[in-house]
Write the structure tokens for this entry.
Amino acid sequence: MDHFLYRDGALHAEDVAISDIAAAVGTPFYIYSTATLERHYRLFEEALAGLPHLICFAMKSNGNLAVIRTLAELGAGIDVVSAGEYLKARAAGVPGDRIVFSGVGKTREEMRLALDGGIRQFNVESEPELLALNEVALSMGVRAPITVRVNPDVDAKTHEKIATGKKENKFGIPISRARAVYAEAAALTGIEVVGIDVHIGSQLTDLEPFEQAYLKVADLTRQLRADGHDIHRLDLGGGLGIPYERSNAAPPLPLDYGAVIKRTVGDLGCEVEIEPGRLISGNAGLMVSRVIYVKSGEEREFLILDSAMNDLVRPSMYGAHHDIVPVIEPAPGTEMRPYDVVGPVCETGDTFAKQRPLPPIAAGDLVAFRSAGAYGAVMASEYNARPLIPEVLVKGDQFAVIRARPTYDELINRDTIPQWL
Ligand code: LLP
């Protein structure tokens, strides 16, 4: 459920008419609903009730400071993957002891930054990284709290570009090597082992792979404890999928996911961390765009929008589906017709949807892409010298621009011309 509904024939974000925001901000833009963000966060809180836990929002899905602050005020932790994300989390007011640092390629500078500023734990992904972190920590006279990310060799049954838990993927260390790596870690005086980490992929619509992975983590916990390690924290990653197509069967709910966690690792006495991104931010956001032209080709009609693949790359990158809805509600019984919905970028790949049934749409109309709050704005680029589009946050009847559209001067002045030219 989200808070983007038609009222009196016009799409609203909570209590604000989308067309009012479009008039104030210009199109295209992203818009997020505070109530939806909060609701999704609370679903995970309820799902893990009774277990000691921390929900670490995966900032890679939506990194706007206002979104992070909204969740941090509810008590959320944050999962970061770069110095930039770490610093943004801190700037949004997240204390270091609620930040976990994931990622396969942390640099020594990033390690130093987080150790200096405060960090809950590093999720270490390789032996060379472990050794580097040990050196950095020793050079600073501190101990770095770590989990080791294990790769459980489980098929997440999701899109190949976002599956991470098979042995052929670049993530984590093979679970078969875990005991050796933990023994190595225990011998390093700059390292403090606190637990185990696993993340098998994103947009999972089946709980079975989670169950398999978490059972392997539970077994490993017992083995490592028998080996003498103090395993008291399990980071179970993110990945729970969302319904991108309203017409499809809904994926499992956080409550069902929580039941899997309780069933598989609930009796180990560990503190549980999860790193959901998409389920919290995805359906809390829309991308709103205006139709520039309706163009009739020989065989099809094209809706040419003022947004493009640089603003929302998921359809061209993953063939992803986003529901597209008109901002003015169609009258009941309106007949749908198929449109190809495209952007103005000079690539055939700049196509949001092909032969999508929509009510008749005219130039100048506003349309909204649903489920665009995760991996939308964060993956945008300025390809074709199109400035990044603004982000807006709604709360009740208020809205605020939480990232302004850059001016053309800003875009141009980012480049410099060397003196020899
Ligand atoms: N934790 C780790 C270590 C991750 O790599 C990810 C996502 C998450 C948590 C959050 O996963 P989520 O709950 O959002 O599924 N750009 C792609 C998704 C890439 C996901 C990468 N890792 C897309 O647009 O579908």
